[in-house]
Amino acid sequence: MSDHDFISGSKPIGIERGEGPYLYTADGTEYLDAGASFACTPLGHSHPAVVEAVQEQVGKLTFVDSSYPVQSREDAYAALVAATPDGLESAWFCNSGTEANEAALKFARSATGESKIIAATRSFHGRTMGSLAATWKDKYKEPFEPLAGDVEFVPYGDSEELAAAVDDGTAAVILEPIQGEGGINVPPAGYLETARELTDETGAALVFDEVQTGMGRTGEMWACQRAGVTPDVLTTAKGLGNGLPVGAVAVQDWIADGAASHNATFSGGPVVSAAVHATVSTLVEEEWPAHAAEMGDYLTAELEAALGDAVREVRGDGLLIGVELKRGANRVARDLAMDHQILALPAGRTVLRLLPPLVIDEAEADQLVDALTEIVAPEASAES
């Protein structure tokens, strides 16, 4: 089996169950999940609060469409809106991150009456036709072209290029507060603030894609809070249901008031809504974002000290960490899995992406550091 198959297709590890930050095969082999679940389980696998909420709801009502009031959906909406930055007063549920971003771009165009979308190089916003048009890599787009038009790309993190692109015909600027798929790229100080100022001046909508950065991963509930910037539209998914398929769009009132009709059959189904309510409530009440900040600082410092010049850089925020290697990330991810029972992912050709559940502790962080050191800095590992 090739490295490409291991990362992109079927993996030779059959997972049977999960608990906390660990996954287990049928024979009981334990794997530390340091990213293989794409940030989808911030509370860890099979968290009791989520399991209980889902089991209770599925026993009462599995599904009814969103035209009927359901208490689990109302609870989920209330919990999500309460957890978003002040100013985002309405929300809509969907089934995935790409659907959330698709809706965000539609809402922005209908609310502003404009069409141009500004996106960033190295961005990833999804694989449906609209969100794909705002995604940077040609390999994702070329088989499906022509895509939705009037999308302009600017270099991520370059405030001057962004200012030159945003004008009165701009419907939206869509940005990841930290880029995930593109390599865990952290923007320079002031970049998100500039985006806010430019969209305010022109009447465009500022859309933050927090599908990977949200749900406490960066040390705040939302990465944009680290910069003190509130968007007009915030999208989330992945960890929103702690492993169940759900996405959401939270918007300011002017977007909600100006948005045209949009819906989905499974929007806010009772079971996934129960998972959302349990996940968001537990993250907030048990202060897991603060734990992510603490553990992220610890893990980053330990990685930098152990790996040193054997890697180009360790970057990110909280428990969204990228290790830029001097070799291919696919091979390192494979070695971690096969030799050390740790699951991680590449983010591009040379960046290893670490997205462990927020519930990891120092011992589990040390396990990850020791394994990675043995692979990419064996001399340092031998000395220790």
List the helices and strands and how they pair.
Elements: H1 3-8, E1 15-19, E2 22-25, E3 30-33, H2 48-60, H3 71-83, E4 90-94, H4 97-112, E5 116-120, H5 129-133, H6 138-141, E6 151-154, H7 159-165, E7 170-175, H8 191-202, E8 205-209, H9 224-227, E9 233-236, E10 247-251, H10 253-258, H11 270-285, H12 288-307, E11 313-317, E12 320-324, H13 329-340, E13 342-343, E14 345-346, E15 351-354, H14 362-376, H15 378-383
Parallel strand pairs: 3-13, 5-6, 5-7, 7-8, 8-9
Antiparallel strand pairs: 1-2, 2-3, 4-10, 9-10, 11-12, 12-15, 14-15
Helix pairs in contact: 2-11, 3-11, 12-14, 13-14
Structural features, described:
The protein starts with a helix and ends with a helix. Residues 1-8 have low confidence and may be disordered. The protein is α/β, with parallel strands linked by helices and 384 residues long. Helix 8 links the parallel strand 7 (170-175) and strand 8 (205-209). It has a domain at 48-285: Aspartate Aminotransferase, domain 2 (3-Layer(aba) Sandwich), CATH 3.40.640. The chain has helices at 3-8, 48-60, 71-83, 97-112, 129-133, 138-141, 159-165, 191-202, 224-227, 253-258, 270-285, 288-307, 329-340, 362-376, 378-383, and strands spanning 15-19, 22-25, 30-33, 90-94, 116-120, 151-154, 170-175, 205-209, 233-236, 247-251, 313-317, 320-324, 342-343, 345-346, 351-354.
